[in-house]
Design the sequence.
């Protein structure tokens, strides 16, 4: 059996290691940090949103959608749940299809993986940031204080988002050394910036709202979910989803009452004399009433079409995932490099990113399984 090195101890790296170890492979898992799965521990706002029952290529961005569809078909959301529950625990979907552990703790998912890896006698090297990867018939991996040789390598070291978890983009250089390209990188699932004056007085207010991304008068994305106002823009579930589509110059249009039409709202305002009591949170009401200055028409417009021009995003430091990476077109159907046989990819380092809602972890687990199957075909 070949010796395999996996670079990166996140969701994709740990899942790939489990698949390979269960098949009897010799695996060394190398993680630059002092703990496996740190980013996984924070996913789903700390509750562990691992996949989505609505998973399909339509929820992803990539350079090769047809290939992505074939890859996703090899590991459905049900397969993902079976894999996770095979290590223990129970995973259940919510009303929107987002799948969580029943205990709603992302850190417990990491504990499942760590326990399984220990049971499978995984060789784990912590504090091992691979700085050099070469090939001379076998792969040689080198890091400060250590080195090893392997027959195959899985590069699952993440992208550039959330550098506090150790994903600073440095792993792209390992792929580039074999001739791989990297598509333009940008933050995704990230807070959006607007003019601070337009959100003044709203910081900390969270609403369940309808949200549209409008570009030159055309709607390019719309959804419903949490919108949280910050000191210089907006955050929340709906905004994270919209951030995959929004660019500087677009306009966010917020409907604070997506279940109420304008006629019903007009009638309520007429009965209350323009009060917003029991219509929106008091803090939001104060700001909107001040801006409307007594006009019902203006107030209705603010409630149903509150507009915020997008000035940008809050960068990789605040992003959950990376848009861009190693093109799928530079890999085969098992995510093996077309530049160097024996080099495989998994997870966020590839040019695949999903919408908010469990899609990115589904990709991590899918790509991990595909890469493991490709390696096992060669063993």
Sequence:
């Amino acid at each position: 059996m070949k010796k395999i090195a996996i670079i990166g101890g996140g969701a994709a790296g740990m899942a790939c290691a489990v698949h390979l170890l269960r098949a009897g492979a010799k695996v060394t898992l190398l993680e630059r940090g002092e703990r496996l799965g740190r980013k996984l521990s924070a996913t789903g706002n700390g509750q562990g949103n691992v996949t989505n029952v609505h998973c399909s290529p339509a929820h992803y961005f990539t350079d090769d959608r047809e290939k992505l569809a074939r890859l996703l078909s090899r590991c459905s959301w049900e397969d993902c749940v079976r894999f996770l529950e095979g290590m223990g625990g129970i995973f259940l979907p919510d009303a929107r299809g987002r799948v969580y552990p029943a205990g709603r703790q992302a850190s417990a998912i990491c504990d499942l993986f760590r326990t399984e890896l220990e049971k499978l006698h995984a060789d784990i090297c912590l504090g091992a940031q691979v700085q050099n990867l070469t090939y001379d018939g076998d792969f040689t991996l080198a890091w400060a204080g250590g080195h090893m040789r392997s027959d195959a390598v899985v590069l699952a070291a993440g992208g550039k988002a959330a550098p506090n978890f150790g994903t600073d983009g440095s792993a792209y250089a390992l792929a580039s050394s074999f001739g791989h390209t990297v598509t333009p990188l940008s933050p995704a699932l990230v807070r959006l910036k607007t003019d601070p004056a337009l959100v003044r007085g709203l910081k900390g207010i969270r609403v369940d709202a309808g949200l549209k991304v409008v570009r030159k008068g055309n709607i390019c994305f719309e959804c419903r979910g949490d919108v949280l106002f910050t000191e210089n823009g907006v955050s929340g579930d709906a905004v994270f989803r919209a951030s995959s589509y929004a660019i500087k110059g677009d306009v966010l249009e917020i409907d604070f009452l997506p279940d109420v039409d304008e006629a019903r709202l007009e009638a309520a305002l007429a009965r209350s004399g323009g009060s917003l009591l029991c219509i929106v949170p008091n803090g939001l009401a104060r700001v909107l009433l001040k801006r409307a200055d007594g006009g019902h028409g203006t107030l209705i417009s603010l409630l149903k079409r509150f507009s915020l021009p997008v000035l940008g995003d809050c960068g990789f430091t605040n992003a959950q995932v990376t848009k861009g990476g190693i093109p799928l077109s530079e890999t085969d159907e098992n995510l093996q490099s077309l530049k160097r046989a024996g080099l495989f990819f998994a997870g966020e380092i590839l040019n695949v990113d999903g919408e908010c809602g469990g899609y990115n972890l589904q990709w991590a687990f899918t790509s991990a399984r595909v890469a493991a199957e490709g390696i096992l075909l060669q063993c």
